[in-house]
Amino acid sequence: MRAKTTTVHGTESESGTANRTFSVAGHLLRAPRPAAGLYLVATPIGNLGDVTLRALETLAGVDMIACEDTRITRRLTERYAIAAELSPYHEHNAEAARPKILARLAQGAAIALVSDAGTPLISDPGFKLVREASAGGHAVIAVPGASSVLAALSVAALPTDRFFFEGFLPPKESGRRARLTELARIEATLVLFESGSRIQDTLAALAEIMGERDAAICRELTKLHEEITRAPLAALARRAAELETRGEFVVVIGPPAAHAHAMTTDALDALLRDELARGSVKDAVAHAVELSGRPRREIYARALELDRQIRGSDDEA
Fold this sequence. Notes:
Methyltransferase, Cobalt-precorrin-4 Transmethylase, Domain 2; five-stranded mixed beta sheet; 12 strands
């Protein structure tokens, strides 16, 4: 049976298309070589069936696929019988690999850039390559598809008219709390990435700093053990010890209520203690006024009291 030929933008390679094929449901399809340029190809975030036909045509047709981890990308190419050159491109080798990719683009190559999962450049390497390829006059083409950010937003049952993507929080507790305090002031739904090893601590900090906001924990999206838990942050924090921590997490937090602009007393104290440990009362007050929504006079009085407590503890020690 003769294989069906599919069409994408671009021209056939002069050397032929013997290896530019892919398989879907047992049917072998030809993939014409795309026009020269850098193709940003979204790949599945878990379920390999979520790849688009355009993504498969592109991956099968390009001269090379630049990927974070060749072992992970090979699972996708083997699933769809794509015989493509895979070349690693990640944060540890980018400085050396980027000039080689740009040189091949200058020679007229068609190159795909993929991340381990989802849409390239969203919390993974690629920005500098795209910037330099664009500056060099090379075409940069998006081949959209799966995204854990959009998947989580769609199932969280929270407002989506405005959202702010934060990605991963700082790993250290002090940095994480400071950043969450800043994020609490943003009047939009928040989207965070978190690892299983830190999800429980992050939920505790979120509940303390952001109070009773509605939220959703999305674990292992599109995978066999996908799990979506929706509840106020305080309830999620109370049940954190029971949470399955294996897998990857996207946390979606609803926007603050219209009347909830002022930081809680506990969150204010935590912010002031953190600031006082690193600097002066004046600097701590200035930062807290900016973030807390509380009166300066109140914050100044509380900062002085906490500073006396901290210095008293130091003297006793």
